[in-house]
């Protein structure tokens, strides 16, 4: 039998061979052009990792993370929009004054603390009350007014994100839009409406992207990011206090000395509540509620260190790795608030590898509200209550892990009134 019998020379066969050869050549040239970081997992013979659905770069060290977030932030400024995100946001990317914030925090706390007092000295999970405090504050800053405690609308906000955007945030926005007055700005939504109005007056349709949908989604972004991360951060912080009673007692001594027991902590107390804020920072490091943050995507061909990265590549900053890097943290698994303090007991410069809010052009826009807000809530909860494990139980501070979030495990704590 001749060789030709085994290798028919039909046009289809020739075309297939040419296609395979062309694809292999393209892959080889692309591989030579881009010096990708090493890949984990199993590589198949000849195909390598070509079977993978999407090449994604994960950054685990702080120097490379700062190169992405700060030094070359423009190159990595795009956000990765996957179909599920686009469905919920219509393609809109996840892209206030001190007295007003303090007023909102105190108003929410007074309502919640009065309700929480009824659970003192008994096993109690404060999750609903923390959700209320955080949601109430954000609603007030965005729209003015406040929630009715444990209202059906607020419970719906916790359970149905999509319905919230349409029924809760959308309705609130259109109500506020009807009463908008450019010389009486009341809250964030008024400022967004004014920005669009002034742009339309001066530039016509130049700011056509700032539609009602975009404004509603901007507010929804604030709620989804602000409520989830803040409530989980506070829940972890209380679990840590129950797990480390000596650290809790030291923070409470500072709060008693600086604030006393006759009023709620205020923003003016913040410089003197350094240890309490350091406790919160260490809880945020240990827990890392958003382990991968918001994913980036390269806007152009660029590089990370010695590796070349093509345009359109998803890039993930592994905040969990940064916060648990033994090369960056002394006694990395130990809960040590002192690592954030200087020799005078004041908050020192932010540790290089502490990035719960990200950095650079894509830093979390809520950082400058979230940090003082979280401190006031946390200090108020420590001022009023002593937190401990249920009798004959151990506090479980390990998170329920997922790629997008670390969630505190549901459990009850013992809450003892101090004041």
UniProtKB/TrEMBL annotation:
Q: Gene3D superfamilies, alphabetically?
A: Cytochrome P450
Does the record carry Oxidoreductase as a key word?
Answer: yes
* Membrane-crossing segments per the record: 12-29
**Pfam families according to UniProt:** p450
Annotated stretches, region: Disordered:
398-419
Q: Which domain of life is it from?
A: Eukaryota
Sorted keywords for this record are: Heme, Iron, Membrane, Metal-binding, Monooxygenase, Oxidoreductase, Transmembrane, Transmembrane helix
Record family assignment:
Belongs to the cytochrome P450 family.
Q: Which PANTHER family match?
A: STEROID 17-ALPHA-HYDROXYLASE/17,20 LYASE, STEROID 17-ALPHA-HYDROXYLASE_17,20 LYASE
Name of this chain's protein: CP17A-like protein
């Amino acid at each position: 039998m001749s060789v030709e019998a085994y290798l028919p020379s039909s046009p289809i066969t020739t075309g297939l061979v040419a296609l395979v050869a062309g694809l292999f050549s393209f892959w080889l040239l692309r591989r030579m052009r881009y010096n990708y970081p090493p890949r984990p997992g199993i590589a198949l013979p000849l195909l390598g990792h070509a079977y993978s659905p999407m090449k994604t770069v994960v950054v685990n060290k702080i120097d490379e993370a700062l190169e992405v977030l700060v030094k070359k932030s423009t190159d990595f400024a795009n956000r990765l929009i996957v179909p599920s995100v686009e469905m919920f946001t219509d393609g809109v990317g996840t892209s206030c004054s001190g007295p007003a914030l303090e007023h909102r925090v105190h108003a929410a706390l007074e309502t919640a603390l009065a309700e929480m007092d009824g659970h003192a000295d008994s096993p109690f999970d404060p999750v609903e009350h923390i959700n209320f405090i955080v949601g109430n504050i954000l609603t007030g800053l965005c729209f003015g007014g406040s929630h009715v405690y444990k209202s059906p609308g607020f419970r719906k906000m916790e359970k149905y994100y999509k319905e919230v955007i349409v029924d809760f945030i959308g309705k609130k926005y259109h109500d506020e839009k009807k009463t908008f007055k450019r010389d009486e700005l009341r809250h964030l939504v008024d400022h967004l409406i004014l920005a669009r109005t002034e742009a339309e007056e001066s530039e016509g349709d130049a700011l056509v992207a700032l539609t009602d949908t975009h404004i509603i989604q901007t507010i929804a972004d604030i709620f989804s990011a602000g409520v989830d991360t803040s409530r989980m951060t506070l829940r972890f912080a209380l679990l840590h206090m129950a797990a480390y009673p000596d650290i809790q007692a030291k923070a409470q001594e500072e709060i008693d000395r600086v604030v006393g027991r006759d009023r709620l902590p205020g923003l003016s107390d913040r410089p003197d509540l350094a240890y309490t804020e350091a406790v919160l920072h260490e809880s945020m490091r240990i827990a890392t509620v958003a382990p991968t943050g918001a994913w980036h995507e390269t806007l152009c061909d660029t590089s990370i260190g010695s590796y070349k990265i093509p345009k359109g590549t998803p890039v993930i900053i592994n905040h969990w790795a940064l916060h648990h890097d033994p090369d960056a943290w002394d006694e990395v698994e130990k809960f040590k608030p002192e690592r954030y303090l200087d020799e005078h007991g004041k908050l020192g410069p932010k540790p290089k590898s502490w990035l719960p809010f990200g950095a650079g052009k894509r830093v979390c826009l809520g950082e400058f509200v979230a940090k003082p807000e979280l401190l006031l809530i946390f200090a108020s909860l420590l001022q009023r209550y002593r937190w401990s494990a249920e009798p004959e139980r151990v506090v479980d501070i390990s998170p329920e892990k997922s790629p997008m979030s670390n969630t505190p495990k549901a459990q009850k704590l013992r809450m003892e009134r101090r004041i």
